[in-house]
Amino acid sequence: MDGRRAGGGGGGRALVVRALYTISALMSDMTLGASHQTLRDEVTAELRRRILSGELGQGERLVEDRLAAALGVSRNPVRESIRILSTEGFVQVVPRIGATVAVLSVEEAEELFDVRIAVEGLAARLAARKRSPAAADRLRRVLEQAREAVEAGRLEQVADYNTDFHLAVAEAAGNSYLTLMMKPMLQRAQWVFNRTAAARKGDSWSEHLSLCEAVAAGDEDEAQARAVAHVAAARRSFLAETGRAR
Amino acid sequence: MDGRRAGGGGGGRALVVRALYTISALMSDMTLGASHQTLRDEVTAELRRRILSGELGQGERLVEDRLAAALGVSRNPVRESIRILSTEGFVQVVPRIGATVAVLSVEEAEELFDVRIAVEGLAARLAARKRSPAAADRLRRVLEQAREAVEAGRLEQVADYNTDFHLAVAEAAGNSYLTLMMKPMLQRAQWVFNRTAAARKGDSWSEHLSLCEAVAAGDEDEAQARAVAHVAAARRSFLAETGRAR
DNA sequence: ATGTGAGGTCTTGTATACAGTCTCCTAAAC
DNA sequence: GTTTAGGAGACTGTATACAAGACCTCACAT
């Protein structure tokens, strides 16, 4: 078309190789925190971590220059990260004005539980329907890690393992778009969790265990019911802590 | 902290002004296709449009240089757009290799219906619960536009109005994260719609109307049931067209 | 003929540079 | 005293430049 493709010009085999890379990239991204290959990925993860941990407070301005300097990179990776975090709802971007950490009102936090009940209920049902032994094993492994973290009193990690468990359920559902959608949703849930539900950090474990059993047993109705009950319990706890119990 | 904030350094009033801008930005983005203020927004919208329309085929490579040249911009806005579309699931990015238009297999397209049933069912229920007259009016207006488009035979626009209707339901639910989540989901649904369900382009209108009525009446159960039935009907139609009917 | 390595081209990732815009502060005019 | 123009500073948006990696081609060895 435009004469640029003069030389070698992407042949057919490139696509095969690319597909392989795609698979490995997905695997690494799903199983672990991902072995970051680019600065942008690291910056995104770091900014997200700082937002979730509260290191970057709600409403705080995100000035590209300063973040770039603080992280030792140029503005470009920072900009792309901010755009990504914006689509995930962690950052509010206003054209030509700037970006700020999103403000999560109590009402919005509460609204999130409605979405989670619908989506996580579906994920649990689909996971039970699949009834994959490998997925069940993974759920148990994550639960074990969470239990150890609770016993060792490493409370910061408990939140991470909680999210990991929910993410594992999402992936066990075997629905790629559901997984894509749930990742940011669960991180948002962790954001809420980090700010409020300190008291509940032990409780959720037994609920996770019972959900895990229902999934492993392939009982769709029970799995969905337990997932829904689990999120509903978290909501009650949240409402109680924020003084808006009904 | 770091001595940079020497000069004026964002005072207190800036936040007020910024809040106003935020509101107007949200409004324009929600009500219309948004009066794009930056090249990046335009590029994102254009690329998304080309993907949804099939102009950019599934699996097609997205070479930053070429897209930038084709759109008459530099690589930067294109890169940011690609990252955004990646989080929405329209583009598959592999570090250091490149980006391609996502490949939506028949199985993945089918899986999307499961998610839609759960999410759109919730949206309809919440919208009915809100029972906002303004939202109901908006639903009727979109329906009217869709009807006119059907009668005038402008089939390309029918798909857009369909999506508009579903988006209006999402916004009527008054749950900000649900809206954020549903926007890309509905666009993905339109992607599927554009490729297959040509035959159903008239049918959906009556189903939309009945959903609209249930929402306006504030009947939560009925609204959810009709939304679920609507998506389920679309799935049946999809399965029939792809020859995978059960 | 098949497998293997070096060179070249293309493309991405990152950094830097420039232009436009927004905000704030100051100062003059009414 | 209040309001309104003007200018300086800061930050975003966009473009350009440079570095590094990946893929293809071709030659060479087995």
TrEMBL record, chains A, B:
CDD domains cross-referenced by the UniProt entry: WHTH_GntR
Residues forming coiled coils: none
Keywords, alphabetical: DNA-binding, Transcription, Transcription regulation
Record bears the keyword Transcription regulation: yes
One Pfam family cited in the UniProt record for this chain: GntR
GO MF annotation terms: DNA binding; DNA-binding transcription factor activity
Domain HTH gntR-type: 37-104
Name of protein: DNA-binding transcriptional regulator, GntR family
Protein species of origin: Nonomuraea maritima
